Structures are given as C-alpha cells and as structure tokens.
C-alpha cells in the first residue's frame, strides 16, 4: 500500500466513512467527506473542481479506486500506521459534522454533498444569497435543507 | 425530440487521417482545433520517448485527439441507433469531450505526469509508523504538495482559457457540461460517459489503431467497425455488445496487453522514460518546472502554458546539461536523453500470474531485494548510485478493471462494471461483464497480471570505453547479483 492509500484509509476511518466505493453513493460520500475534511485544514493535497454533484477531485478518484483494490486483495499495511496527532485532532473536531442531523431527512451522501457544495460556492462567491440561489436552482432535491446546512457550516467555522 | 433548430452539421469540413481516412468536423470543432491550446498538442508526442526505439512512434496528441473525437461520434451513433434516440446536441458534447480529453497533457505525456506524482508522493505524508520500527515520521507532514492530473488541467483550460471558453459559450455549451465527460467524473451515473474512458473507449481504440499504424507492429489491428455494428442496449439501459462479437472484443482487450508489453514496457523505452522522470524531478527540485495548481492556472491565464511542450522541456534539459554546477550524475542522465544513449538492462524478472495480495507482496519483496543491492553494486563496481536503478511496471492487469468486477457483480450501479465491456444475453436481454462469460478468454485472463522488474545501469560511456568493456562489466555485475540473490529466474 502506498502512502497516499494508507493516509486516505486512516483519514476516512477517523471520520467513520467507509472506504467502500462500489456505488455512486459510496463514492460521493468519500469525495465530499475528504473535501470537507480538507477545508478544516486536514489537507491531503487533493484539488477539487466543480462537477455535477458539487466539488469533485479526479485525483482522489484514482486514489480511492487504488485503495479499494488494495483492500480487496487483503493488503492491510495501513494497520501499522496512524495519523500524525495534529492532523488527527482536526478530523476529530469535525467527526460529528458527518452525521445527518435528526431533523434532516437526507441520506448521508446527500447531506455531505450539500455541505461540501455550500463550502465550495461560498469560497468562490463569498455571497450567501448567490450561493443559496445557485444551489436552489442546481440542487432542487436538497433545497429544503439548505438553511440547516448553512447553519451547520457556520457552527463548525467552515464558512465565514 | 430532434428539431430543425438543434441539428448540427457534423460535416462542415473533412480532413484526411491515416487511421480513419476521412474525418468530418463540425464548425465548433474546427474552431477548437484552431485555438492555441489545441495547437499546442502538435508539439506533444503521444508516446514520449518511445520514438527513440520505434521511429514511427512520433505522432502527437493532436492527431490522436481528432481521432478520439471521430470515434466518440461513431460510438455515440451506434448507441443512438440501438437506443433509437438521436440527439445532435448531446452528440456534440461527447465529440467535444473526445476532442478535448488530452488538452491538459503535460510535455512528454505520461512520463512527466508520473514524475510529478513520484515527486508529490515522496514530498509529504500525514502518517507515522506504529510497529516495532518505532515512530518514524515522514518529512514535512503539514504541507502536502498539490498537483493536477492532465484531465484536471484540461478542466482548468476549459474554465480559464479565454479562447476555448469563448468558443464553447458562443456555441451555447458550458465548460461544466464538457469536462466531467473526459475527467471520468465518478459521480455521473450514466454509463455513456464511458465512450471516453473505459475498457472499450474511444481513447483506447484510437490509441491502439494509431500506434499500430505508426509503429508498424500489428497489435492494434482491431475490427472496430464490426464491434460498432454489434452495439446493443440491454433492458437495464447498459451499452453492451452482441455475443457475435465476443471474439473480436477478446482480441481487442488482448491487443492492449501486447501493445503495452511490447512497446510501452520495451526495455529501452522503459529505461529512457525512467531517466527522463529522474531528470524532471531534478528540474522540479530546482524550481525550473512549477507544478502547483496555482502555477498551472497562472500559466494558462498568461498564455505561458502554450509554450510548455516537449521542446520546452528538452531545451531546459540542454541548458542544464551545459551548466557547470549541474551534478555529474544528472548531466549523465541529461546526456542520455539528448544524445540517445540508453541505460543498459542488466537483469530482468518477468512473469504472468494472478493479481493477488500474495503475488503482489512477493513482487514488492523482489523489487526491494534488488533495490538493496544498489549500494553493493555501486561500491563493488565504482558506479554512481544514481546511475543504477530498479524499474518495475507496478503490475499490469490485462483488463482495465481486472478483478475489481468480482466483488461488484451484484451491484448494477457499479462504476467499475460500467468501465468494462458487457456482452448481451439474447435470452434474458440483459448483459454481463465479459469476464463473467465462460466462453470468453477474459474469463480466464482478467484476473491475471504481468509482473516485470528490471535493473538498469546508465554507464558513462566516456569512462567505460577506456576501462573494461561494458559487456565484460555487465557479466560481472550479473554474476554479483546472482550470488547475492540466488535461485531467481533472471532473464
């Protein structure tokens, strides 16, 4: 297992996100969790662009398919590693953000898509109204939960 | 529903291509081809330094990209014929994605991208070992280096290059609709994105056909017209191939194996590419090649990116070769590239075996054994350590998805399944990945991989000409290796 795969596995473990990437929903969860994690300063070095379902990194895609392949062949080298403490602490700080709040009736991958999209668009525009309008248009299935997601991002200091 | 207003003339201009004969282009495609970002591809060889061995392998990403545009259109037409749903706008998007799929390639194509990945991988880590070795922290844990793969640079070009951006927008296409099709956006459910990147994709088809044509080897002679005629849509909407073409698809998938093993992994090609990667890493360390996403974006905006081609890097190598403060071992590598002085393959170990954890561990152990000998060879034969290198092919699976499909076989939504060729079942009218068919060669071979390890030495010819001949020295080194690691099947 290469460093990139070991780090990614430990990163996802810290956020309690499964590294299984079989389905579209699995992959979306991993993409958005890493994006949100990086926003807090736990930076793995992945570069994100705006795609159909929000922030997406082709470089991460390569790495998680390789990780999936490593795990499938029984490679467990990651077990003799741990994350450096400062990094691990940053992830602990946002672990709970990954959980869908009880009042939000969305699967976890959709919740993470919404959070990640808000963070990305706010960085781009620094304008709450514009971001809200854009997401309402582009993601009508998530429209009802935009306020909750904004609130969460604010509470965790992910948007200014 | 197709209306008169959204019809597109895909035959605005015809150009001649040695592989596909006539290629017809639409107006927007002609404009894109004329843009400076696309013209840059004329100066980037598809196969890097492969032409040092196969003189005909000097075709560029320019002709390949036009070929991929053409084949993507043909795949789309076959798909629409099977689905009875023609849509010129959608077809144009896919053809544009095919045309633009390589627009972000680095100079020397994959050699440079691999060098950058190597540099980044070594430059940072956020992990520490907790086993008996003790707590070993990797260097520079808090500042990960970023880089962009060529598909992501393509995205940045579509978003930030004035000319390309304007052409797309003037024709009512958004960049955001095009780049996810060639970056293989893993979050797109529709499997027609696989026209550009999968086992049976337009990229691979054009590459194999074009390489076979230019190099003169027969490995890419695929009956593409027959495959296209056999495209079907199953009851779940998957693109698949009629079982009549099963043998043709098996043959196509094997072509890739033969092409890689005979061309890409050719000993001299592999040796030159390895040296080029090391030289590029040296130039990155000297800050002569800037790889951060911010630098790439800036160079796209300023236009510097369009001078950034094979000749630019080769010129940089020439400049540093002449510099008095460039270390001798790096100069030797630079000379190797400038004057085509290949490294010598000393030993090779190669096998085809299952792609399993134990085989891969065994493979890594063999690489490690050989790497441990580098110091000894350097000391014993008075050769600089940096001139001795162990190359490996990182295992090469015969199909793009290999064994990945096995676990996902019940998961209809699997992106990995979508990346492989599916074969139609005439009874159930569903389809299954080719490797699940007992009558296919891929049923046996998809789980197999080629494992290849080599030890190369870049001899300083000026020095060794006056000493023992290189042949004599090579025999002594082989004997030395065989004594230290006996019972290995060196070839």
What is the number of beta strands of chain B? 11
* Class inferred from helices and paired strands of chain A: mainly alpha
Strand content of chain A: 5-15%
C-alpha-based Rg of chain B, rounded: 24 Å
Order of helices and strands of chain A: HHEEHEHHHH
Q: Average pLDDT across residues of chain B?
A: 85
Percent of residues in β-strands of chain B: 5-15%
Unreliable spans of chain B: 132-142, 402-417
> What is the share of helical residues of chain B?
40-55%
Strand order of the largest sheet of chain A: 1-2
Main sheet characteristics of chain A: 2 strands, antiparallel
Question: Explain this structure to me?
Answer:
The complex is a heterodimer of chains A (160) and B (491). With 160 residues, chain A is mainly alpha-helical. Chain A is built from seven helices and three strands; from the N terminus they run H-H-E-E-H-E-H-H-H-H. Chain A has helices at 3-15, 24-39, 58-72, 85-94, 108-125, 128-138, 146-155; strands at 49-51, 54-56, 81-83. A two-stranded antiparallel ribbon of chain A has the order 1-2. In chain A, a hairpin with a 2-residue loop joins strand 1 and strand 2 (54-56). In chain A, helix 5 crosses helix 6 and helix 5 crosses helix 7 (146-155). The longest helix of chain A is centred in the last third of the chain and has 18 residues, at 108-125. Chain A is globular, with a radius of gyration of 15 Å. The mean pLDDT of chain A is 90. Chain B is of the alpha+beta class. Helices cover 48% and strands 11% of the residues of chain B. Chain B has 21 helices and eleven strands. Chain B has helices spanning 27-34, 36-39, 61-83, 88-100, 110-123, 150-160, 162-170, 175-182, 202-215, 224-229, 246-264, 267-285, 293-302, 310-322, 328-338, 357-381, 404-407, 415-418, 442-445, 461-464, 470-484, and strands spanning 13-17, 21-25, 127-129, 231-233, 239-241, 344-354, 388-392, 396-397, 422-424, 431-433, 448-457. In chain B, strands 6, 7, 8 and 11 form a four-stranded antiparallel β-sheet that branches. In chain B, strands 1-2 form a two-stranded antiparallel ribbon. In chain B, helix 14 crosses helix 15 (328-338). In chain B, 43% of the residues are buried. Residues 132-142 and 402-417 of chain B have low confidence and may be disordered. At the A-B interface, helix 1, helix 2, strand 1, helix 3 and strand 3 of A face strand 3, helix 6 and helix 8 of B. Strand 3 of chain A pairs antiparallel with strand 3 (127-129) of chain B, so a sheet runs across the interface.
């Amino acid at each position: 297992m290469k460093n990139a795969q070991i780090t990614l596995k430990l990163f996802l473990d810290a956020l309690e996100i499964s590294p299984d990437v079989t389905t579209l929903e699995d992959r979306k969860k991993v993409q958005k969790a890493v994006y949100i994690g990086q926003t807090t300063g736990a930076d793995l070095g992945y570069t994100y662009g705006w795609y159909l379902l929000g922030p997406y990194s082709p470089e991460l895609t390569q790495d998680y398919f390789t990780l999936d392949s490593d795990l499938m062949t029984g490679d467990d080298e990651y077990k003799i590693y741990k994350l450096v403490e400062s990094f691990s602490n940053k992830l602990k700080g946002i672990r709970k953000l990954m959980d869908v709040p009880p009042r939000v009736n969305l699967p976890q991958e959709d919740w993470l898509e919404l959070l990640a999209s808000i963070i990305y668009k706010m960085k781009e525009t620094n304008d709450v109204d514009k971001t809200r309008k854009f997401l309402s248009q582009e993601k009508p299935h998530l429209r009802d939960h935009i306020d909750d997601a904004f609130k969460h991002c604010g509470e965790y200091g992910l948007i200014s | 529903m197709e209306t008169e207003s959204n019809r597109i003339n895909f035959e605005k201009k015809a150009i001649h291509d040695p592989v596909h004969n006539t290629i017809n282009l639409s107006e927007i495609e002609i404009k894109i081809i004329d843009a400076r970002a696309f013209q840059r591809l004329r100066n980037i060889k598809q196969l890097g330094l492969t032409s040092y061995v196969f003189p005909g392998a000097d075709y560029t990403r320019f002709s390949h990209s036009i070929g991929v545009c053409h084949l993507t259109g043909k795949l789309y037409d076959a798909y629409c014929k099977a689905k009875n749903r023609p849509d010129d706008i959608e077809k144009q998007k896919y053809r544009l994605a095919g045309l633009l799929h390589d627009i972000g390639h680095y100079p020397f194509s994959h050699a440079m991208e691999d060098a950058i990945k190597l540099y980044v991988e070594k430059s940072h880590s956020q992990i520490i070992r907790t086993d008996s070795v003790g707590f070993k922290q990797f260097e520079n844990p808090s500042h990960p280096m970023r880089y962009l793969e060529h598909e992501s640079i393509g995205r940045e070009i579509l978003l930030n290059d004035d000319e390309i951006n304007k052409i797309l927008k003037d024709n009512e296409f958004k960049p955001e609709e095009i780049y996810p099709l060639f970056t293989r956006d893993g979050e797109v459910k529709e499997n027609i994105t696989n026209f550009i990147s999968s086992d049976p994709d337009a990229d691979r088809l054009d590459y194999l056909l074009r390489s076979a044509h230019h190099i003169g080897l027969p490995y890419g002679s695929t009956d593409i017209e027959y495959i296209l005629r056999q495209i079907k849509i199953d009851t779940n909407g998957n693109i698949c191939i009629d079982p009549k073409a099963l043998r043709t698809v098996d043959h196509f998938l094997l072509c890739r194996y033969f092409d890689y093993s005979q061309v890409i992994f050719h000993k001299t090609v592999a040796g030159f590419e390895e040296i080029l990667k090391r030289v590029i890493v040296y130039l990155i360390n000297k800050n002569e090649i800037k790889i951060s996403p911010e630098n790439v974006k800036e160079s796209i905006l300023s236009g510097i990116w369009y001078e950034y081609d094979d000749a630019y890097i080769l010129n940089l190598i020439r400049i540093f070769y002449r510099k008095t403060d460039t270390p001798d071992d790096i100069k030797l590598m630079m000379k190797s590239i400038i004057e085509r002085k290949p490294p010598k393959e000393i030993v090779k170990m190669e096998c085809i075996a299952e792609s399993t954890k134990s085989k891969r561990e065994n493979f890594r152990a063999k690489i490690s054994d050989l790497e441990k000998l580098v110091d000894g060879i350097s000391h014993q034969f008075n050769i600089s350590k940096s001139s001795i290198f162990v190359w490996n092919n990182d295992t090469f699976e015969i199909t793009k998805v290999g064994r990945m499909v096995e676990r996902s076989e019940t998961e209809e939504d699997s992106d990995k399944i979508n990346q492989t060729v599916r074969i139609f079942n005439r009874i159930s009218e569903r389809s299954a990945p080719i490797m699940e068919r007992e009558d296919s060669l891929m049923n046996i071979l998809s789980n197999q991989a080629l494992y290849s390890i080599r030890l190369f030495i870049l001899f300083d010819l000026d020095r060794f000409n006056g000493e023992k001949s290189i042949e004599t020295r090579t025999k002594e080194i082989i004997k030395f290796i065989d004594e230290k690691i006996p019972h290995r099947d060196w070839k």
